[in-house]
Design brief:
With 181 residues, the protein is mainly alpha-helical. The chain is 71% helix and 4% strand. The protein has helices spanning 3-14, 16-20, 33-38, 41-78, 84-138, 159-170, and strands at residues 28-31, 142-145. A two-stranded parallel sheet has the order 1-2.
C-alpha cells in the first residue's frame, strides 16, 4: 500500500477536517458568564431593576438619616428641660427606633442582593438547554469559564453567539413564568 494513502486514511480518521477541508470542531469552548448575563436582554433588565431599586433605597436611606438627625437634635435640645428619667426614656425609644430602621433598611438591601442571585440562577436554568444545543451544534464536549483559560483561540469563545441566541429565545425574560419555589 502506498505510504501517502496510509497517511491520508489515518488523517481522515484522526482529523476528518484534514480530508474534507472543513474546520475541525473545537471540543472545548469558552464562555464569559459575567458578560453572558450582563449583555443579554434578560441580564440587562435584571441589572436595570436592581439599579432602580438601589437608587430608591439610597434616597430612602438619606431621607431617614435626615429625619433621624433632626430628631436627635430636637432630643438634645430638650435634654436641659427634662428630668434624667424622662430624657433616658426618650433616648432609649430613639435608640430602639434607630435600630429598628437600620434592621429594616438592611433587610431591604439583602432583598436587592438576593434578587440578583435569584435571577442569575433563574437565568442559568433557562439557558442550559440553549447552551446544550449550541455545544452540540459546534461538536464540542465541554464549555469552560473563559476567565479560567490562560490562552485560547478566539473561535472557541461562544459568548457573543450565545448572547444572540439567548436574546432571540428568551428576550428580556420578563414574560417567563416565575421560578418554582
Amino acid at each position: 500500500m502506498d505510504r501517502r494513502a496510509v497517511v491520508a486514511g489515518l488523517a481522515a480518521v484522526i482529523w476528518p477536517a484534514a480530508v474534507t477541508g472543513q474546520a475541525a470542531p473545537d471540543p472545548i469552548l469558552t464562555i464569559d458568564p459575567d458578560r453572558l448575563f450582563a449583555e443579554t436582554a434578560f441580564g440587562e433588565r435584571v441589572l436595570r431593576s436592581i439599579e432602580e431599586r438601589s437608587t430608591v433605597l439610597a434616597r430612602e436611606n438619606r431621607r431617614i438619616e435626615a429625619e433621624l438627625i433632626a430628631e436627635e437634635r430636637a432630643l438634645t435640645e430638650q435634654r436641659a428641660s427634662l428630668s434624667v428619667a424622662e430624657f433616658r426614656a426618650l433616648a432609649d425609644a430613639f435608640d430602639e427606633k434607630v435600630q429598628r430602621l437600620r434592621e429594616e433598611q438592611d433587610a431591604k438591601t439583602r432583598e436587592i442582593q438576593g434578587l440578583r442571585e435569584t435571577e442569575q440562577q433563574r437565568f442559568l436554568g433557562e439557558i442550559v438547554p440553549i447552551l446544550s444545543t449550541l455545544i452540540t451544534e459546534r461538536g464540542a464536549s465541554i464549555v469552560v469559564d473563559r476567565r479560567s483559560v490562560f490562552l485560547s483561540a478566539s473561535r472557541v469563545d461562544i459568548t457573543d453567539e450565545a448572547i444572540r441566541i439567548i436574546d432571540a429565545e428568551l428576550g428580556d425574560g420578563a414574560g417567563l413564568p416565575p421560578p418554582a419555589d
